[in-house]
Every structure is written in C-alpha cells, then in structure tokens.
Amino acid sequence: MHRKVLGVRGDLVFGRARVVVFLDGCFWHGCPRCYQRPRANAAFWRRKLVVNQTRDRRQSARLRAAGWEVIRIWECDLLRRSAGGIRTVTIAVRSKRRAG
Ligand SMILES: [Zn+2]
Fold first, then answer.
1. CA–CA separation, 18 vs 37, rounded Å?
2. How far is the CA of 22 from the centre of ligand 1 (A)?
3. Among 7, 10, 46, 69, which lies 20 to 30 A Cα-Cα from 62?
4. pTM
C-alpha cells in the first residue's frame, strides 16, 4: 500500500483504482483548524510550512494531471471521525474500480 506514484510517496496507494491517499499531519502541513504557530524560531517554522504546503499542492496537481484521484485527510479528521475519513476512501476506490 505504501508506495510511490510518479515519484510521490502516498500513504495509501490503490493502483488499480488509481486513488492515492495522503494522511496529512496537522502540524507539518498547516491544518487550518488546529495548526498552532510555534513561538520559538517563528521565521524558520513559517518557511518550513510554506515549503511543505507548496510541495503538497504541486504533488496533488501532478498526480491529478496524470489521472489519479487524490484524497488528503487531516490527522485531526482521522482521529475525530475516522469512520468518515475511511468511508471517503472506500467510496473513491470502489467507484473507480467499477469505472475502470
Ligand atoms: Zn487538524
């Protein structure tokens, strides 16, 4: 499940359905709900976040352009309502398999 697609490592990769899932850590990827800016080394962390978010967007765009469905799930969503997050993935994979 854990493999690379177009040089990008997805957290879950469903090759036949062409669905790739990323589980984004709220701190590392800047979750709009629960990201808290560290007080120490603020400039360093701000830059780091911009780099990570830019890479996330670029990778998602590259995968979508190649025909992959990209699902990004926040860590907090997974922890708070894991059933919802898993259902999203299941529906995407099943519908793609039927279509393909
Ligand atoms: Zn979050």
1. 35
2. 14
3. 46
4. 0.82
